[in-house]
Amino acid sequence: MVTNHDTRTRSLPKAILLTLPILLLMALMVTGGQPVPTEPIRLIPLIVAYVFTVGLFFLIVYTGRTHRYRSVLFVIYAVAFVMTFIPNLFELRGSMAISETEMIQGHTPFCHMVIPMTAIPAALSRTIIFPGSMLEGFAAIGSMLVLWLGASITLGRGWCSWACFYGGLDEGFSKIGRKPLWKNIDRRWTYLPFAVLLVVALASTATLSPQYCAWLCPFKTVTEYAEVTSATTLVQAVVFVSLFAGLVVVLPILTKRRTQCGLFCPMGAFQSFTNKLNIFDVRIDPDKCVRCGKCEKVCPTFSMDEGSIRRGKTRLTCTKCGRCIDECPKGAISYHVKGTPAGARPRLARLLFVYPAFLFLAIMGSGMIQGAVYRVLLLATTGRLVE
Amino acid sequence: MVLANGFLLGLASGGACLAYCAPVLVPYLLGEDRTMRGSALLVGSFLGGRLVGYLAFATMAWMTQVALVQDLPHRTIVTGVITVGLALLLIAYGFAGPMRDCRTSCASVAVRRFQMPRPRLTPVLLGLLTGASLCPPFLLAFGSAAQLPQLWQSLLFFIAFFLGTSVYLLPLPFVGLAGRHDAIRTVGRLAAGVVGLFYLYSGIMSVIAGIQ
Amino acid sequence: MSRIKAFLGYSCAIFAVPLVLATFMGYELLAGELVALTGLHVHPIYSGGEVAQTIQYEHYQTLIHRPVFDGLLGQRERGFIQIRWQMTDANLPQSLDEQVDFDADGSNDFRIHVDTATQEARIEALDRRVLSVGQVFHVPDGRIVRVHLRRTSQ
């Protein structure tokens, strides 16, 4: 086990002090500014979510290990999202499938995965090619765009490890098993997300229809999908279920990497460009680095290679998950604030990044965790998952 | 008059032609490391193949007197088969070609063994198959050309139509300049493969629809 | 210079936390501002386009949207017109009939009949540009139908 001496807070009181802002902010955010509920079925989930998120932040600060505890929250967040979203769909319309009737009323929730496909039409004609609503209803387009913009400015492609509620599924399956069974993946496949992005962005612009959603998104398996009413929708269903099984379940288990995120997701490719705007990145101190290549072996999204290590930084696709930082035996890798000297004040840079990143993850995650715990309690007390 | 009508129809249909050709040509141009002149030659080769496809169908239009267009099931099967051929070519180009940006150690044994040679014929074949896949503007021209009394008039009409549509494709060599970067080249080739997969599905569904 | 860059870097980094809080606390308000500022709206092929005409009946109203031929930048050859029958104070009658002049030239272009019990629609085209009628969507407050059109007469 590698202990990151550079960033560990050696003093318990100091760690508690550093956790205090999160303690206070999460108390505000987890209640949404509303009075604390009194009925146990609402109160227990709130307490669980609060204690869990604050506890994890304390561990991040105290142990100096970012990835280990971020990963726990990230995976649980994704599972909680599925546990919350699916019953919600059944309560709303009795099915995971979305019908054309729902779409024509603009009731389709807007998912962030659509953003790359809507970018060109939005830029050219100020229209969103999606059967949703700009401001009304659940996951309205405007609200999701604001959340995405905030995350992109703050985190860049850190979105993929600190905000995306799908990435945790990929990451969760990659944790199964001790060693990878398939190690050598041809590096050119790391460019596939950009190729998929190019094709779906242009195809969506040409057809005025979000093609990734229609044809390729594996996460429809655990959220919602168009009703199967024709041969085309049947083929689409087979495709997305197969992609989920392959890219989200099987390949992560075999490779112990996030294969959907690193080798396919066009949203991830799109977010990579926001890394250019974001103030945080990950740097390698050439004086400390011994070129052991461990970071390259463990990076979940293939964002380290010989060239990037030589240049002292990660590839554009880095999701700032912190794994290479935690695993580096020489403590040569650290979070970094652009404009400052590389390797200078790593502890400060880490804190400056972890505060907003964890806050984003915790706020998004705590809502889902509350929802999931609520569903579990509902099942335990009434025998039903839906109200 | 024949020339003018063909050219004007081509100009009017050019946008749609660009929409049909771009998914094939853009990834291909991105996937090649060429200078501006080289990219222009590639586009020229593609257009040449497309012209051959057009002229072949112009000849068929005159000889069959519109029978192929009106006979919808056969047309769908022909389109489907040609699209499948185009798809396989794109998939082979995209996924099985050599990766110059990739160091030899990182390309798998399977890929190196199955490398597709990149003959000069590739852009010509792509153009031929794209042109022969019977896109809607082409069908429009086909119908007009088939009604002309002489073969040479049909051929002239198609050449003029081809020139009219090609105007929209002239800026594409600039896209090829991005292919000078290794990463863009890799993305271009993989994108060609992804487009190929879409076309494979589309072609198979057309054949099935035609048979039914 | 390096000090200025470092100062700016740390300043932006510190600003990240308030930005996250502002994002979550104000996303609904910010969403409204974003939409107002950019003019972003759902593409008419999904929203059905703006309502061009409202016809009031005793217990319901008919909302006739404008014809939608919108492409990305120009107009497409094929489009549709969306018609919505909306209950006001009672259930919709079993039979809905409407005559529509979608190009405002003074003459009706089609007649549409909808059976609200069987969700079937029939159309009588009075103009060559009228192609067909799509399925009837049964929504909580009424029915929606799209009639497929061609932009030009040829």
Model description:
The complex is a heterotrimer of chains A (387), B (212) and C (154). Chain A has 387 residues and is mostly helical. Chain A folds into 3 domains: 1-95 and 346-387, no CATH class; 103-252 and 261-278, no CATH class; 280-344, Alpha-Beta Plaits, CATH 3.30.70.20. Chain A is 59% helix and 4% strand. The model of chain A has no long low-confidence stretch (mean pLDDT 92). Chain B has helices spanning 2-30, 36-64, 67-70, 72-96, 109-113, 121-132, 136-146, 151-166, 173-176, 182-211. In chain B, helix 2 packs across helix 6 (121-132) and helix 7 (136-146) runs antiparallel to helix 8 (151-166). Chain B starts with a helix and ends with a helix. The longest helix of chain C is centred in the first third of the chain and has 24 residues, at 2-25. By secondary structure, chain C is an alpha+beta fold. Chain C contains 3 helices and 11 strands. The chains are: A mainly alpha (387), B mainly alpha (212), C alpha+beta (154). Chains in contact: A-B, A-C. Strand 2 of chain A pairs parallel with strand 1 (41-42) of chain C, so a sheet runs across the interface.
